């Protein structure tokens, strides 16, 4: 019997992870200073599904710090249930459109707030990260 081999991406070094964890904590602090609820979703296992900014460290070598917006559970569940049933993407139901629009609007708000606070931020690949914001680091 042959062992299965997987091409898993390399993980970041402990030093890089420490830097990213520090950056993620700074992001949470700055979002809280702006009045937004923010939490390290990667540290609490995502068990608490409160609305607000979900900050997490992607531990693979090409990873980093990401921030995504989480809507209220009622809105999220309603939109996702309709989405799972199948929708017309050209004309989605109002609740699905509203949920999508909130994520787009909050992505812009997070980009602006974090840039104003001195972070280097950008929109990552939407296919891989949806409406999340990538935090590259602090501006020099």
Give a verbal description of the structure:
The protein has helices spanning 14-33, 73-85, 94-116, 126-129; strands at residues 38-40, 52-58, 64-70, 119-122, 133-138. The mean pLDDT is 90. The protein has four helices and five strands. It is 43% helix and 19% strand. The protein has a five-stranded mixed beta sheet with strand order 1-2-3-5-4, with helices on one face. Helix 2 (73-85) crosses helix 3 (94-116). It has a domain at 14-70 and 110-138.
Describe the secondary-structure layout.
Elements: H1 14-33, E1 38-40, E2 52-58, E3 64-70, H2 73-85, H3 94-116, E4 119-122, H4 126-129, E5 133-138
Parallel strand pairs: 1-2
Antiparallel strand pairs: 2-3, 3-5, 4-5
Helix pairs in contact: 2-3
Order of adjacent strands in the largest pleated sheet: 1-2-3-5-4
Secondary structure tally: strands: 5
Work out the radius of gyration. Answer: 17 Å
Helix content: 40-55%
Distance between the termini: 54 Å
Describe the sheet with the most strands. 5 strands, mixed
Give me the number of helical elements. Answer: 4
Uncertain residue segments: none
Helix and strand string, N-terminal first?
HEEEHHEHE
Features:
five-stranded mixed sheet
Short description:
The protein has four helices and five strands; from the N terminus they run H-E-E-E-H-H-E-H-E. The protein is α+β, with helices and mostly antiparallel strands. Helix 2 (73-85) packs across helix 3 (94-116).
